[in-house]
Specification:
By secondary structure, the protein is of the alpha+beta class. The protein has a single domain (2-138), classed as START domain (Alpha-D-Glucose-1,6-Bisphosphate, Chain A, domain 4, 2-Layer Sandwich). It is built from two helices and seven strands. It has helices at residues 14-22, 111-138, and strands spanning 2-10, 35-39, 46-50, 56-65, 70-77, 82-95, 98-109. A seven-stranded antiparallel β-sheet has the order 1-7-6-5-4-3-2. The longest helix has 28 residues, at 111-138. The protein is globular and about 45 Å long. The model has no long low-confidence stretch (mean pLDDT 96).
Length: 140
């Protein structure tokens, strides 16, 4: 099992970061995804992500805990040479207008793809967290 963890403190209130991430909607506003479609609300919601290169990623939301600001989702199908992808997202308040966002995943892959997949997901999570901060700050 391969694990990737990205954790960053950003200068936005935790509740704003959490409400954006936990909706499981509009991920394209803060990521390289071209567009997404989410069906349903909360646990069991499905999200289809359409990438600029034409690839499609299918995800399902498995856990949402508003009290601890944690969620978990799985990729059920996608273009990556991986299996068993599970991702956890956690938001923790670090002050009135700052929070720490931790985004991690575990997956299985072959040895030849391991470094590339780690780089891909690390890059993706960094872009999402940085873009989340920029988007929320620009709304103020």
């Amino acid at each position: 099992m391969t694990e990737v963890v990205v954790s960053k403190t950003i200068q936005v209130p935790a509740n704003r970061a959490w409400s954006t991430l936990s909706s499981f909607r509009n991920i394209e506003a803060i990521s390289p995804i071209e567009r997404s479609e989410t069906i349903g609300e909360g646990v069991g919601a499905t999200r289809t992500c359409f990438m600029p290169d034409g690839a499609t990623i299918y995800e399902v939301l498995d856990k949402v805990d508003n009290a601890t600001m944690e969620m978990q989702y799985k990729i059920t199908e996608g273009p990556f040479p991986i299996t068993g992808y599970v991702s956890n997202v956690k938001v923790e308040a670090t002050g009135n207008s700052s929070c720490k966002v931790t985004w991690d995943c575990q997956f299985d892959t072959n040895e030849e793809s391991k470094a590339a997949m780690i780089e891909l997901f690390e890059g993706f999570y960094n872009v999402i967290i940085d873009s989340l901060e920029s988007m929320i700050q620009s709304q103020n």
